[in-house]
Amino acid sequence: MDSRRIDRSAAPPPSAALDPPFPWRLRGREGFLHFFSETTSTMDEARQIARAGCPSFSVVVAEMQTKGRGRLVRPWYSRAGGLYFTIILRPDLPPEACFKLNFLASICLVRILQHRYGIEAEIKWPNDILVNHRKLMGMLSESSILSNRVDYVNIGIGVNVNNSPPETTPEATSIKLLIGEPAPCLPLLADFLDEFEASMKNLDDIDIISEWKRYAMPFGRRVTIVTTGEEFNGIAENIDSEGALLLRLADSSLKKVLYGDCFP
Ligand code: BTN
Predict the structure, then answer these.
(1) Which of 73, 234, 238, 260 is the residue whose CA sits 20 to 30 A from 40?
(2) Average pLDDT of the chain?
(3) CATH second-level architecture of 221-263?
(4) pLDDT band with cut points at 50, 70 and 90 for residue 234
(5) What pLDDT, on a 0 to 100 scale, did the predictor assign at position 164?
């Protein structure tokens, strides 16, 4: 059996009544929101919508994904009860500066968890959000560059809200587990869109690297970096001005890692 198939025999989460049925309404965002009760992946839908020329800050939200994607070609389990969305951006930024958008999104998410639930979360490079070393949210981004100009950057975010993380990922957690009761998804999405949009307007004034490091797991630890096909061990020393991880290898050389996953 395809492990990514949704188990429909599972009862809907008790939190289902906390959110209104789709389509959700968010004042001021009419015409920018695309809702799917079920889709393969909001990344697939967002790509099509972006290619068709949608405006910046369009958002695709799904209740369930049958082929939710994680980074490094991993599945992202997307049962009902979680928050799954992709935001389509058309930033006026050079391609090499687009990492700032992902960094900004993770900063906003950590702040919202703090304000709304008192949850103290940490960012693990590049953009995982963890609480007590367990993963609560993941982020995936895909972009299209045309003649060295950014056409779109799609940022997909998956939050374990009321969905039980699958048994295969004991290292995951959810908002429901952390606060001891179910939580609605809609206010989380609304907070995120508002805070992210407002912060994006000030992107030039923010020292994004320093701000991101305030919330990031401390550097100076031994880690394993996994990329598609390669693995490196070393000390995670810092990140550079492009958001790349600087890894001190056993032979004392410094390796710049632009893409990958980081494990303790
Ligand atoms: C990761 O941590 O590996 C990234 C997970 C990203 C999951 C989100 S859920 C919404 C969007 N649609 C997807 O298929 N993936 C992203």
Answers:
(1) 260
(2) 92
(3) Roll (2.30)
(4) very high
(5) 83
| DSSP 8-state assignment for residue 199 | H
Is the previous residue joined to 126 through a cis bond, with omega within 30 degrees of 0? Answer: yes
Cα 227 to the center of its chain, rounded Å: 18
Helix, strand or coil, per DSSP, at residue 59:
strand
Spatial separation of the C-alpha atoms in residues 257 and 246, rounded to whole Å: 6
8 A C-beta contact, residue 173 and residue 131: yes
Residue 155 in contact with ligand 1 by CB distance below 6 A? no
Residue 175 CB-density burial (10 A; 0-12 exposed, 13-18 middle, 19+ buried): buried
- Strands (DSSP E) contained in 66-166 are 83-89, 122-124, 128-131, 134-146, 149-159
Instruction: Kindly indicate the confidence band of residue 208, based on its pLDDT and cuts at 50, 70 and 90.
Output: very high
CA of 137 to the centre of ligand 1 (A): 9
Is the distance from the beta carbon of residue 141 to the nearest atom of ligand 1 less than 6 Å? no
Nearest CA to ligand 1 atom 11: 156
Q: What are phi and psi of 28, to 5 degrees?
A: 85, -10
Supply the CATH classification number for the domain 8-215.
3.30.930.10
Cis peptide before 23 (omega within 30 of 0): yes
The pTM score is 0.92
Q: Tell me where in the chain the CATH 3.30.930.10 domain(s) lie.
A: 8-215
